């Protein structure tokens, strides 16, 4: 039991670092590690992952909000869509067999890897014109980039498509317990054209709130097993704290390049499991 | 001229108040997260040392009331779950605090948006209980 707890703690620590870096919540590491390496039932893995998402978000939030990288207005506005979606997803989850969850999970990850690959050379978004609604909602902002050593001002496009994708992201979050930061970062990055760091930091803030919406449901259904979720929470909290420091010293392009192969690898693993090859 | 200086001073004061408030929120969150981590850690240690979860095999409490009852009688599983419950409540707490922050900024549009998010969160908790 001690060994298992330590194993869980170790990979949760790594999940926390990557989660904080990419705004992904760490579920993409926690779920496969628990199910594939330790043979945990997918439902308890999802319960632990929801906890990991909240731990990443809270652990990273303190630093990102203090340093003003997180755009709180964008986060709150989009959160209306994600929380509603999360409730929908948590209720559908009981109706779908684990096999399909694996397949959906695999496809989601593979798609994210390809989308990230396409944007691998872009450091900051260029020539973005703000959507009229973005102006009305005061979504534009600025942050200090420690690597570029300058204040970066940014505009916000695609408010409607971003909002719509966030609802879908919420549904997936409730369904798979992955925090669906992938979708959130992608929506902010590809549709709303925010700088990568603002996207990941804001996603980090959002995933915790969305996950909290479904965590209540999972807790009362008994999917949050203290023996699994406990060490996951501890490991992820420690990892996320370290991850925020690393993120600020990295280039946006570096962050993308590190993670593409990891995403591709895990997505294929999950697809194989789901298809029963 | 004098009026403009007054207004600048007021704005500066407001900004300072806001920053001070953000710092307080940031500190409160750090304390909350640290507390939950410590509680989970103690629960895990209790579980590992005693080898007893405090509940029949394969069982653990799933409602906040049961969890808190177990916490009071120091059952290891309940202690871990109390820490997890604290952790789950942090984002909810943050949203609640943001409502106050936006209200303080007199940003009524975002006070409304944030309140809506908070209400959806509360609904989700209630839905989870009914099911």
Automatic annotation (TrEMBL), chain A:
Annotated InterPro entries: TM_pro_TauE-like, TSUP
Transport listed as a keyword: yes
Protein's name according to its UniProt entry: Probable membrane transporter protein
Protein keywords: Cell membrane, Membrane, Transmembrane, Transmembrane helix, Transport
N-terminal signal peptide: none
Protein family per UniProt: Belongs to the 4-toluene sulfonate uptake permease (TSUP) (TC 2.A.102) family.
Location(s), subcellular: Cell membrane
Origin species: Thermoanaerobacter kivui
Recorded GO CC terms: plasma membrane
PANTHER family given in the database record: MEMBRANE TRANSPORTER PROTEIN YDHB-RELATED, TRANSMEMBRANE PROTEIN YFCA
Membrane topology: Multi-pass membrane protein
Residues that span the membrane, as ranges: 12-38, 44-65, 77-94, 100-117, 159-183, 258-276
Coiled coil: none
UniProtKB/TrEMBL annotation, chain B:
Keyword terms, alphabetized: Membrane, Transmembrane, Transmembrane helix
Transmembrane spans: 28-49, 77-96, 108-128
InterPro entries (alphabetical): DUF1634 (IPR012861)
Record Pfam families: DUF1634 (PF07843)
Record-given protein name: Membrane protein
